[in-house]
Design brief:
Number of helices of chain A: 5
Order of helices and strands of chain A: HHEHEEHH
Distance between the termini of chain A: 33 Å
Oligomer: homodimer
Radius of gyration of chain A: 14 Å
Shape of chain A: globular
Chain lengths: 113, 113
Amino acid sequence: MSRTNRRALTHPVTEEIDLLDVLHALSDPTRMTIVRTLAAEPERACGTFPVDVAPSTLSHHFKVLRESGLIRQREEVNRRMSMLRADDLQARFPGLLATVLAAWDRTAGPVSP
Amino acid sequence: MSRTNRRALTHPVTEEIDLLDVLHALSDPTRMTIVRTLAAEPERACGTFPVDVAPSTLSHHFKVLRESGLIRQREEVNRRMSMLRADDLQARFPGLLATVLAAWDRTAGPVSP
């Protein structure tokens, strides 16, 4: 098992996912783009999203998404992988994520990863 | 017609309501409570909502809600009335407001005005 000096990645359990945290996390264009991208595939490495922000800013956005319960992250040897917690969100807030993404596609157009 | 020294109340037209602005407006507990309260009645005077914040803070929250397109406000002689733009939101983002309010009721419980 590899050792790492990164802090452990914390995720809220499904029952503690907070609606206002989720709405706040989704209210930013970079974070919405990350969520929209992840909705189309099972998992993706953090540096490969179609967003144009500094690495430290991107790291903050991933933290907001993770702590809100929208995404789950795990470490691989040389990279951090992210996946959307679609099933957890559907269990907690039925229809919410799908409705928000449909609204986003309606106005911003779907992403082309 | 009465004269007033208050600035004119501006509202985005339906086609310009921005999803991220709406999500941001809904991500605050006071603003969510205002929206939830307005979902249950046609119109309400600003000082009568079941929220416990200073008048200047409340005024800010109403401004965020109005400028996001979530509510419409109009002046009466001695008070400002607010109403939810439910039809406009349904036209712009079908199902969004209902889904968010259902999620809020699911976790916070419906308000009792």
